[in-house]
Write a structure and sequence with these properties.
By secondary structure, this protein is an alpha/beta fold. The protein contains seven helices and eight strands, in the order αβββαβαβαββαβαα. Helix 1 runs antiparallel to helix 2 (83-94), helix 1 (3-16) packs across helix 7 and helix 3 crosses helix 4 (161-169).
Length: 286
């Protein structure tokens, strides 16, 4: 199935609730964060594999709203994951990846996440620059213990606050990088690029290829700030690039009708998903 057709079919299934019977719910797993304190929850989407085969993998980091639907109504499990996360988990599994969605907020007492405009009110134990990268590395270590995962072919993908955590996790001096090395590649969707001022003195340098996707009409984070961060990084030799989508908003890849009713978001969803999968394919499958 082609990337374009595959994503459109998955998104349609999420919109209508008509996902096919073979789309089993993800497996709920638990593993320690590399912070040495939290035991995290994760949701594992697995591809069809031959007996004994190993697949590349992608760790997924949710945004400030958490991994669950706004309609979860107090139930926080695989059945109430947001449509975006379900769609991406199934898409990645359909493309041959083991996909692990990490819940950073629920195990720390904030399963419903946070509303827009709440940045200054969030507890430091959820810090996207110092703590959530350690969650990503806990997930990486967990995946490397699995018999169905290729330990040296694991990527990282994050959205919004999780996109910022992805940027922070990919720095050359990031805490928590295991002895076996870090991620092979990373993708960040519409991150906030201030990163608490960490890269004001020295340019941002990821240790592996990184791609960023963002809309020019993002209403939550600054496209200009991200452009400046990436420009400085590229000038310093970083293998990083950013692609802007004219008129697309924050959360443009949410498959729900509200976001996808905007043509700019629909176009951005189609193009960015294809580019992200092509990027991961080149980095993780070869």
């Amino acid at each position: 199935m082609g990337v374009r057709l595959g994503l459109l079919l998955v998104a349609a299934a999420m919109l209508t609730g008509s996902a096919s019977a073979q789309d089993a719910p993800p497996e709920r797993v638990s593993f320690p964060s590399a912070d040495g304190k939290a035991t995290l929850v994760g949701y594992l989407y697995r591809p069809a594999l031959a007996a004994g085969a190993r697949a590349p993998a992608v760790v997924m980091l949710h945004g400030r709203a958490g991994p669950y639907s706004s309609r979860a109504n107090g139930r926080y499990d695989a059945a109430t994951l947001s449509r975006r996360h379900q769609a991406w988990g199934r898409l990645l599994a359909g493309e041959g990846y083991v996909a692990l969605l990490v819940d950073s907020f629920g195990p720390r007492g904030y399963p419903a996440g946070f509303p827009r405009g709440s940045y200054r009110d969030r507890p430091d134990e959820l810090n996207e620059v110092t703590i959530r990268p350690l969650d990503a590395y806990g997930a990486l270590a967990f995946l490397r213990t699995r018999a169905d995962v290729s330990a040296d072919r694991i990527g990282l993908q994050g959205w919004s606050n999780g996109g910022s955590a992805t940027l922070a996790a990919m720095t050359q001096d990031a805490d928590g990088i295991p002895a076996g090395g870090g991620f092979r590649a990373a993708v960040a969707f519409y991150p906030a690029c201030g990163l608490k001022g960490r890269f004001e003195a020295a340019p941002y340098r990821p240790y592996a290829p990184l791609r960023v996707f963002m809309g020019t009409a993002d209403e939550e984070v600054s496209p200009r700030r991200c452009a400046a961060l990436i420009e400085r990084s590229r000038a310093a030799g970083g293998d990083v690039a950013i692609r802007f989508y004219e008129g697309a908003t924050h959360g443009f890849d949410d498959p729900g009708r509200r976001r996808q009713s905007l043509d700019a978001n629909a176009s951005a969803l189609e193009d960015a998903s294809a580019r992200a999968l092509q990027f991961f394919g080149a980095a993780l499958k070869k």
